[in-house]
């Protein structure tokens, strides 16, 4: 596949713009689609969100647009007003060297007369939602004679939103011959029907890009109505072995309840919420990172900036109503080529959210079942997951500004001075005025004594054990 835009037979003006926008290389869908569309063929394209589909169809359209003919030459359908605005914006950016280019959005929520005025003055491209586009067509406001290219963007979503009949009507009213391109993240039967009817002899391209993280993340869902959530959570923690698990809730109150119920049962759990002061937040994160706390419960706000590299399990205690939040949450596991696991506890009312997530990620979330009745009861589950963490955290009252470095702490704890083996020392984190060091549980008290007795860099610091689980 061509690795640069120059080999794609685009006009010098478009190549200049692409360079100005900092697009150094075409994306795979652009490499595959642009030559096909430039050749005038119909196209059915599948590739994930964010893969540059807009430029893939906009560049060939711009290449063939006749600026002097002020009549609509391309029509782009998108499922929502916001998506229309995004596409129009990208088209205008790419068309900035086409002096006089007029791109009109034909969407609801705007006075139709304004769109009529613009059409009268003359436009080259229209981007719209099927509903409003039908309005214009039926009132004879939109001149279709010169339309040469039609794009159905996010076709699966348009059908999901019930625009199927409108889309078909629009396609049957537009003049032939013309070029039609359809882009969709998924290909349900309804899309196949549409393509058979309207996309004759189309070339089909499917771009399987390795999704940055999510291919490495196994995604599961477990049905649990609100009163079953906590047992389902415990079941998950027991069923899927992990070193560190991060649990996301939508509400502060759930965070607190879940963390408290776990901690009460002796599970090594802590929590983060937006109201926590910086010191306690840092401390909690340091303990989670150094494996003194195995389970951390957080809201999205509080969880921002958690950079834990070895996270092997993320649990959505509650699904968020925005699919991109899901992607963000589960993206914390499976990093650095490791396989991660994401489990979502879902209620009957989450179906739409799950659909939206699967659309966005282009992946399927596998359903797992918890055998009710048969498996161990909640009490047994809690006993089974109530394992003390391997490490404990010692807080030292000196940090970077006191010239304390990891080697100094290691030196104070091991060798002749401290008597500990280096295998007993875990992660050491130095902050401005304090440090956290993880030590294995069995030697924790000894480590504190040694640190309080000895010196670091010739100075005495206070060392305390952070003893509680949560
Ligand atoms: P999709 O429609 O596939 O979800 P978009 O067309 O919205 O993706 O593009 C996603 C982002 O990538 C946009 O911000 C766009 O400007 C940018 N983009 C598109 N093509 C390239 C490219 N070749 N190089 C760098 N960025 C690009
Ligand atoms: Mg798009």
Topology:
Elements (H helix, E strand, L loop, with lengths): L11 H9 L7 H11 L4 E4 L6 H12 L9 E4 L3 H14 L8 E4 L5 H10 L3 E4 L1 H9 L10 E4 L2 H6 L3 H10 L5 E5 L5 H10 L4 E4 L10 E7 L5 H11 L5 E4 L3 H13 L4 E4 L5 H12 L5 E4 L1 H4 L9 E4 L6 H8 L9 E7 L4 H11 L4 E3 L9 H8 L5 E6 L9 H8 L1 H4 L6 E6 L4 E6 L3 H10 L9 E4 L4
Parallel strand pairs: 1-6, 1-7, 2-4, 2-5, 3-4, 5-6, 8-13, 8-14, 9-11, 9-12, 10-11, 12-13
Antiparallel strand pairs: 15-17, 15-18, 16-17
Helix pairs in contact: 2-3, 3-4, 6-8, 10-16, 14-15
This protein binds adenosine-5'-diphosphate and magnesium ion (MG).
The site of magnesium ion has 3 residues, from helix 3.
Overview of this protein structure:
The chain is an alpha/beta fold and 470 residues long. The chain has 3 domains: 202 residues, Rossmann fold, CATH 3.40.50; 174 residues, Rossmann fold; 76 residues, Alpha-Beta Plaits, CATH 3.30.70. Helix content is 38%, strand content 18%. The chain contains 19 helices and 18 strands. A 7-stranded parallel beta sheet has the order 3-4-2-5-6-1-7, with helices on both faces. Strands 10-11-9-12-13-8-14 form a 7-stranded parallel beta sheet, sandwiched between helices. It has a 4-stranded antiparallel beta sheet with strand order 16-17-15-18, sandwiched between helices. Helix 2 packs parallel to helix 3, helix 10 crosses helix 16 and helix 14 crosses helix 15. The longest helix has 14 residues. It is elongated and about 90 Å long. The relative contact order is 0.10. The model has no long low-confidence stretch (mean pLDDT 89). The structure holds adenosine-5'-diphosphate and magnesium ion. Adenosine-5'-diphosphate binds next to helix 3.
